[in-house]
Each structure stands twice: as structure tokens, then as C-alpha cells.
Amino acid sequence: MTRTVGHAFDTVYGGIRFDTFLLDDAPVWVACEIGHLLDYADRGSRLCTLVRTDWRDDFAEGTEFHVLAGVRLAAFKEVFPPDFEGVDRRASKLLVLTRSGLERVLLKSDKPERVPLRKFIERNVFLRLALDAATIAGPATGAEPPRVTDPVAVLPTRDARLADELLLKRCIFRSSFLRDTIRVLHALGMTDDTARAAYEVRAAEIALDEELPDLRPVANERWFTANSIARETGMSPAVVSRVISALGIRGAPGLSREVVTVTSDDEKTVRSFVYNARARDLILAACGATPPERAA
Q1: Which pTM does this prediction carry?
Q2: What is the radius of gyration, based on Cα positions, of the chain?
Q3: Can you tell me the distance from the alpha carbon of 109 to that of 285, in angstroms, rounded to the nearest whole number?
Q4: What is the per-residue pLDDT for 138?
Q5: Residue 116 within any structural domain of the chain
Q6: Could you tell me the residue range of the domain that residue 241 belongs to?
Q7: pLDDT in tens, 246-270
Q8: Is 147 within the bounds of a domain?
Q9: Which letter does DSSP use for residue 61 in this model?
């Protein structure tokens, strides 16, 4: 199958250049270039090995990455800039990451550079791609727009770019401010777990500019973390966690549900469980404690 290829633009991060290419008009990135930015061994080649071995369950060829060889690779090499040094031009195979593959690498990697690099790419690469796509798409008249070989030549005016960037930064600021505020209030005990979950979802809706009804907590239903239950019992969270395991209610439908949070320091994704009032009563009973509202 013939694939159209092209070079979109290059970007410099931390003094290191990396390139955004096009494969069938979709953006792709040379994996070893991204690996080099993340400081993987062999000038980034170690990342290619991880994608094909340790991380293979999370990376599907054709979805998260493509392996170019033969005629496809030869065509791809034709669009390399003259000063491109991201890969040995004599290589017989080349692994490139799609956008979903790049995002997944930046989430799975344990390299310290992954968080600042992800933020840089979101603001300087993904945003530019979105602006390019909006410009290249042209009016919705049904006629196919002419193929653009140099996206830089058709970038929006400076005022339009600044307006779009301001709107994006405003969404990021509002979302971050809401998340930080609710975390402080929750840490001070001024709001419960359900309210925090609701505001976390709202922050995500602001950032994504779309509704997420399936993620919103059920109205009028309180949910408790293992730590908050531990505070009620006076026991350590580790002891309460063992009680929960013994009861077999972690992950049990109708008693608990899984939640995903992002830590504020290094933005790592953390999966945990919260428990409804019925589960909390079972845990307290097993710990020999009485719910405060019933003790009264």
C-alpha cells in the first residue's frame, strides 16, 4: 500500500531538535528521537526496544506505531531535512510513533524528563498541529482543498494564533486552579470525597471542553477512601487495607469503584478504590469501630 509522506516542521527542546513528520497526512515522530529527548540509552534507541518488548501489550503496530522498511522507508527518507540526524540514514527499518503512541510513551516512561517534555509537546507541537489542520481544512464546501506541502506557509495570522493560544491557556489555568483548590479543601477536611470527585471531573471537562457525564459521581451517594476510613477507626491505613482485602470488597460491584487521580507533584496516574456507605459500615464493623452518626 502506498503511503504519502512529508516533513511538517522541526522543534527544539532543551537544545535538542526533533522533527514532526507526516504519514498519510497524520503526524508521526521518529521513536529514537523521542527516546533521545527522554535520555534513553543508545541515543534513544532503547525506547524502540521497550515499545517492541516490555511495553508490547500497550502498543499495537498500526495504531501506536509503524515499522517502516523497504519502499516505505525509502520514501520516508526522501523527506528527511538535509541536516536531519535523528536516525542513521543507512538503517533498514525505522520505528515511528503515532500521536497516540507518543502520548502513551510520555505516560509510561519513568524518566524524569517525561513530565516537562509532555507539557512542552502539548503546547508547542500538538497546538501547532491543531492550528495547521484548521487552516489546511479550508471552507466546508465539499470540495477537496489543495494539498499543502509546507504547513508553515499557511499558518494563521499572528493575532489568530495568539487568540487560540490564549483560549487554551485560559482553559488550562481554570482547570488547574479548580483542581488545586479542591485538593486543598479536601486536605483540610472542608469537603468530602464525593465533592472532590465531582470537582475533579469538572476540572477535566473544562480542560477538554466537553461533557463527561459517565465520570460524574452518583448524586447523593457518599464515597470514602481507605485513608478516611482509617482515620475514623484510629488504625493505620495498612491495617484497614488488610481488612478490606479480607472482606473481599475491593473492586466489588455495589460496594466500591475504581478512581483515577493525578498526583500534583510529578503528575503520575494513580489508580485506587473508594467505598460507599454500606462498604464503610462493613469495614468499621470488622475493625470494631462504630460509625460516628450511629454512635450518637
Answers
A1: 0.47
A2: 24
A3: 42
A4: 45
A5: yes
A6: 222-296
A7: 999 988 888 888 876 655 555 566 6
A8: no
A9: B
